[in-house]
Input
Amino acid sequence: MRHTLNDIVIVGAGMAGLHAAEALRENGFDGRITLIGDEPHRPYSRPPLSKEALTGVGMGTAEDGPAPLAGHRALRLRDDAAVDALGLDLRLGARATGLDTRRRRVTVTGTGGTAEEVGYDGLIVASGARARRPDTDLDGVHVLRTLDDAEAVRAALAPGGHAVVVGAGFVGAEVAASARAVGMEVTLVEAAATPLTRVVDPRIGRILTDLHRENGVDVRLGTGVTGFEGHRRVERVRLADGTAIEASLVVAGMGVHLNTEWLRGSGVDLLADGSVACDEYAAASVPNVYAAGDLANWPHPRYGGRLRLEHWTNASEQAEAAARNLLAGEGRTPFAPVPYFWSDQYGMKVQLLGQGAPADRAAFVHGRPEDRKFVAFLGRGGLLTGILGLRSTPRTMRYRPLLERPTPWEEALAAVGGAR
Ligand SMILES: Cc1cc2nc3c(=O)[nH]c(=O)nc-3n(C[C@H](O)[C@H](O)[C@H](O)COP(=O)(O)OP(=O)(O)OC[C@H]3O[C@@H](n4cnc5c(N)ncnc54)[C@H](O)[C@@H]3O)c2cc1C
Output
């Protein structure tokens, strides 16, 4: 049964925010939608920021040097006409700074510092995350989360220079690959013993590390950064093992902080990492408040326990679920996707379906790691839990249905036999 909603506010004009607005319209909501985003730009796509936005490959050419990234066609999430057609009250450069769930009002502060209250009867929280910054004021030390960050990193990439990338997560790995592509020396520093420990099983993490080394990256594992040295500009990165690495540019990929401070004290439950505690419908702890994207934490029925994903596809799928369930009132449907993530490094596509870690077993079911082209199954507790492909898109995606329900490990392997 539908319940009456007239005013829906969405906070965060990124992938989850825009997608929530689109899903509201697709599901027949013709009331007012206020989309509030603190960046000055119309919604844009983050995945290219560490890939083609840095290398220029696939971005088109400009006679007078590279075109600015802001407004670049290749980065727009939708063209202006498609956004306009949604009939939004789009407020850019405006930040949600408080929430009163009793009076159903969001406090919105503009760039000039003036605050106003915006009322709602439905709220979707999609304010995402920001990059964790290293503790230094030196020039030449960057993070990479926003279009403006990417503009600054792109300007600093210079053939022959030395880039030090701190953190070997997927963003760090892609920045390392892009810096190599433009002709820089690259050192990739990771405090953990194997990279990507949170995201993929170490058996896969080691293969991805080898990829960097084959492409000329100096990979330093198991040693953290203790400081950045230089006079106004960074010149060296000091490591915990005492060594120093010359650097003309540093990019830190050290994870994120979730943008949920504005929800503190509102009654919306947050977990220890600052994520919004949602139920299986993407609903927060307060009526008519939903959350989607990087900041949403919810119980996934097939993985036991709660999940929070920093994945592009999850941001759009969860936003769609949040919008649909907010409108539905009763008759809501649980959000139980097959998680999907991809990464592009050295011209190779890595794809992950389901969960890549932790795993207690792994099997290469097509191809071989040494050929840098394979599909691997990952399992836990007797079930198939993840599928990871390198340069194997159709084969990887073909097995997706095996993750839509609990599939015993042996049955999954047998399915490969039948598909060969
Ligand atoms: C460089 C990079 C490369 C990536 N590559 C991939 C990839 O290859 N594959 C993949 O699956 N994923 C990738 N991701 C992850 C993916 O981009 C994110 O999962 C996705 O952007 C999350 O969308 P979101 O809408 O939840 O959050 P965000 O994209 O963070 O959007 C939230 C928006 O809300 C704004 N905001 C924050 N606080 C407030 C506030 N108080 N008021 C108003 N607005 C606010 C933020 O400034 C931001 O514009 C990448 C991410 C980065 C940074």
The chain has three domains: 7-43+78-130+257-328, 133-254, 347-419. The first strand starts at residue 7 and ends at 11. The chain has a mean pLDDT of 95.
